[in-house]
């Protein structure tokens, strides 16, 4: 028989020593979680996040040693209708000034600033303490402003500024994420109960997923001391961890139940599940890790952090499926099918073999007319992918934040009355200290040169505000544009500054270097960065995945087919995103405001996530087909057997993913909506059209050629899949051990 595969040996030991395996897993998760929290989190710095010319500007400013700017909030006074009553506004401003000076946490209240058009009065408030925590301390200011509003009901008196907007958004988005997290768990459990028809069987995958997420959270905190963490890392760990944790457990538990249904004992059923589904879990987990590792090539601290978090949670989920999962299944035995939900249990038992009439009907065209089916399905997916050629990339701006909060409504009134408080370009200039007077004069001339140009906002009273570092070597000027950060006009104003105004103003200043940053520059530079790095990341991921699949299945053709199918899936997802979010038909239907673009970081992140998650299904399905071929089943029948035998598991796993991702699509921010819809649609396409139509038609058409490989890749000492003998009337054997 030879030495058994490591997945089988690990599962056998866990099944024979269940309490030890379970105890070791609990200790492992606890040590990871507690150890990570004890070590603390290291977050990315401006140097880590520097991308393009905008990144150089931020690094220049960060290294100059500027004192931290205090947090500034404002009281905005406007008319409810018609023209602002100046006298009434001045009285309200005086009341606000008096009241706010008594509020704890207020360092200074400035003089009221009238808008150039007389439509508003602005009272600036400088807050004491750490500016990074100002949003947590702004509530007393908001309460004081509310009291002033009650005293002056004829006016609109409202709190607006960075801290108050941050507080409002934290409250709104925090509720969003809390709702998503609360919903995702019962939705996942409900789907698994529907799949298994038993409560314990449904709870096992969720238990593995949650414990994997907890361990990965701790490990990622430790890893942040090597690769600084980003704000989105924890959310991605939760998203990916729940997806793969449930998937891997689902594959394993379904196969174990299937073997028990054939009369095998608990330990034997676990062993066979380990050799078949366990092997598929290792391969698919490796594929996900390879895909996520491609993010390191982007040279971006955010993507590197997401890669670390994703790799860790996938690795932990794979480890758990090979160790604690067999132990739990062996210990539970037939109790895993208790307590049963009567109707759902009968449906689950009826479909446990995977040979439902529905899936055979779906497969019939692919098996009967493979050429026509393949041609039609591929052309349909390519047609869906075509809109991706017109993809625009932008960062979401303040204009894309939900307007359901009073703070954002006040922000719109603030930027209308005071355009310089809206979109700003940031010009950082470095020069020897002796050149500081010349630099400041040049920047003043630069600010004056923008006046009268519709692309730039009028200067506020007092002229341009130029900040100078303590050592006089770095100067910073803010130049405002009255347009939103992702508008064509804002982009034109950036190009005007970079190509014309800034070089002309600083020409002749000795030893000067400069960079233009700000929100508009972030948009432009990051989009360019993504388009430049996406081909590199995609190329490396494709190459490594091809090599892994070729070696795993001992077939170059299977590897090439895998790559092509996943590219079709990703391309269709890209096209669908563009149709939904760059079109005009979906905003009212799905409840969002179109930004006429895709969020800049999404294409690269979506590629690696979809490529990795798609491999889960592909590896599982092709493994079942290969099992049948190695037993001597002809290709057409092997395809039918493999796909119908795995259809229930794949569709169940996909349903869980689609449901969870769809919940994320209900969040308020446009980036989460795009991520949720993109992932949900892609997984749905992949688990249906790709796996049930394109894959069987392609493999049926290729026949024995599916398993071709160079001589050095063929298994030693046994037949290759292409040369197996015809099917024999003998009991089913366990799957391949390659």
What does this molecule look like?
With 738 residues, this protein is an alpha+beta fold. Among the domains are: 1-40 and 197-352, Multidrug efflux transporter AcrB transmembrane domain (Multidrug efflux transporter AcrB transmembrane fold, Up-down Bundle); 72-168, Multidrug efflux transporter AcrB pore domain like (Alpha-Beta Plaits); 406-524, 2-Layer Sandwich (Alpha-Beta Plaits). Helix content is 63%, strand content 8%. It has 24 helices and eleven strands. The chain has helices at residues 6-16, 18-39, 46-49, 52-63, 86-100, 139-151, 162-196, 199-223, 233-261, 266-293, 301-322, 324-332, 342-351, 357-368, 370-385, 406-417, 436-449, 488-506, 519-553, 556-581, 587-590, 602-630, 635-664, 670-702, and strands at 72-79, 106-109, 113-114, 120-127, 155-161, 393-394, 423-430, 466-468, 474-481, 513-518, 598-599. Strand 8 and strand 9 form a beta hairpin. Helix 4 crosses helix 19 (519-553), helix 9 (233-261) runs parallel beside helix 22 and helix 14 (357-368) packs across helix 15 (370-385). The radius of gyration is 30 Å and the shape is elongated. The model is unreliable at 717-738 (pLDDT under 50).
**Are there runs of 5+ residues with pLDDT below 50, and where?**
717-738
The CA-CA distance between the termini, in Å, is 13 Å
| Biggest sheet architecture | 5 strands, antiparallel
- Quick one: how many beta strands? 11
Q: What is the CATH homologous superfamily assignment of one domain?
A: Multidrug efflux transporter AcrB transmembrane domain
Number of helices: 24
* Basic shape: elongated
**Radius of gyration from the alpha-carbon trace, in angstroms:** 30 Å
The overall pLDDT average reads 86
Specify the helix fraction band: 55-70%
Structural class: alpha+beta
Please identify the top-level CATH class of one domain: Mainly Alpha
And the CATH topology of one domain?
A: Multidrug efflux transporter AcrB transmembrane fold
Q: What is the architecture of one domain at the second tier of CATH?
A: Up-down Bundle
Strand proportion? 5-15%
């Amino acid at each position: 028989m030879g030495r058994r595969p490591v997945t089988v040996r690990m599962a056998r030991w866990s099944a024979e020593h269940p309490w030890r395996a379970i105890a070791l897993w609990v200790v492992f998760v606890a040590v990871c979680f507690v150890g990570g929290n004890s070590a603390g989190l290291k977050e990315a710095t401006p140097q880590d996040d520097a991308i393009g010319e905008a990144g150089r500007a931020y690094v220049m400013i960060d290294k100059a040693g500027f004192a931290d700017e205090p947090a500034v909030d404002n009281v905005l006074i406007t008319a409810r209708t018609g023209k602002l009553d100046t006298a009434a506004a001045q009285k309200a401003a005086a009341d606000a000034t008096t009241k706010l000076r008594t509020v704890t946490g207020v360092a200074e209240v400035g003089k009221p600033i009238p808008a150039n058009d007389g439509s508003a009065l602005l009272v600036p408030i400088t807050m004491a303490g750490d500016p990074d925590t100002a949003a947590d301390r702004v509530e007393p200011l908001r309460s004081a402003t509310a009291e002033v509003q009650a005293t002056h009901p004829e006016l609109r008196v409202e709190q607006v500024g960075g801290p108050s907007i941050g507080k409002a958004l934290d409250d709104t988005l925090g509720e969003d994420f809390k709702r998503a997290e609360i919903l995702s768990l019962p939705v996942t459990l409900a789907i698994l109960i529907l799949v298994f028809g038993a409560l314990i069987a449904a709870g096992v995958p969720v238990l593995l997923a949650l414990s994997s997420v907890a361990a990965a959270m701790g490990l990622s905190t430790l890893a942040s001391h090597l690769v600084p963490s980003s704000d989105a890392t924890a959310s991605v760990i939760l998203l990916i961890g729940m997806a793969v944790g449930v998937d891997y457990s689902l594959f394993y538990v379904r196969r174990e139940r299937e073997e028990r249904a054939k009369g095998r004992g608990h330990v034997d059923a676990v062993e066979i599940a380990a050799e078949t589904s366990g092997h598929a879990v290792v391969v698919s987990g490796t594929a996900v890790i390879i895909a996520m590792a491609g993010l390191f090539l982007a040279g971006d601290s955010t993507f590197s952090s997401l890669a670390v978090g994703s790799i860790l949670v996938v690795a932990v989920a794979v480890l758990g499926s090979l160790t604690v999962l067999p132990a739990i299944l062996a210990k539970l035995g037939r109790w895993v099918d208790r307590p049963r939900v009567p109707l759902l249990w009968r449906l689950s038992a009826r479909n446990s073999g995977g040979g439902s009439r529905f899936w055979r009907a779906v497969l019939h065209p692919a098996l009967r007319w493979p050429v026509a089916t393949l041609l039609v399905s591929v052309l349909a997916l390519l047609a869906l992918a075509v809109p991706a050629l017109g993809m625009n990339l932008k960062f979401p701006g303040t204009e894309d934040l939900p307007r359901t909060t009073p703070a954002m409504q006040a922000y719109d009134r603030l930027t209308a009355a005071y355009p310089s408080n809206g979109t700003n370009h940031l010009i950082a200039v470095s020069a020897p200290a002796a050149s500081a007077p010349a630099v400041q004069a040049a920047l003043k001339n630069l600010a004056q040169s923008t006046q009268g140009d519709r692309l730039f906002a009028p200067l506020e009273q007092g002229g341009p505000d130029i900040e100078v570092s303590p050592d006089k070597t770095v100067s910073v000027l803010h130049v405002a544009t009255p347009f939103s950060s992702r508008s064509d006009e804002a982009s034109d104003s950036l190009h005007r500054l970079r190509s014309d105004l800034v070089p002309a103003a600083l020409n002749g200043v000795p030893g000067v270097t400069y960079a233009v940053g700000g929100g508009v520059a972030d948009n432009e530079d990051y989009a360019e960065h993504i388009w430049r790095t996406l081909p590199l990341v995609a190329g490396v991921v494709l190459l490594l995945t091809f090599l892994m699949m070729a070696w795993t299945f001992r077939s170059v053709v299977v590897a090439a087919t895998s790559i092509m199918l996943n590219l079709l899936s990703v391309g269709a997802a890209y096209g669908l995103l563009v149709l939904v979010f760059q079109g005009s038909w979906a905003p009212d239907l799905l409840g969002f405001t179109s930004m006429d673009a895709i969020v800049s970081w999404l294409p690269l992140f979506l590629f690696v996530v979809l490529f990795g998650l798609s491999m889960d299904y592909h590896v599982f399905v092709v493994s079942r087909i290969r099992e049948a071929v190695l037993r001597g089943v002809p290709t057409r029948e092997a395809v039918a057997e493999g796909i119908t035998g795995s259809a229930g598991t794949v569709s169940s796993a996909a349903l869980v993913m689609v449901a969870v991702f769809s919940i994320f699509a209900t969040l308020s921010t446009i980036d989460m909506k795009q991520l949720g819809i993109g992932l949900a649609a892609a997984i749905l396409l992949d688990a249906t059209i790709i796996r049930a139509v394109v894959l069987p038609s392609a493999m049926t058409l290729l026949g024995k050629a599916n398993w071709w490989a160079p001589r050095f890749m063929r298994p030693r000492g046994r037949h290759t899949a292409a040369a197996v003998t015809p099917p024999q009337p003998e009991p089913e054997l366990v799957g391949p051990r390659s």
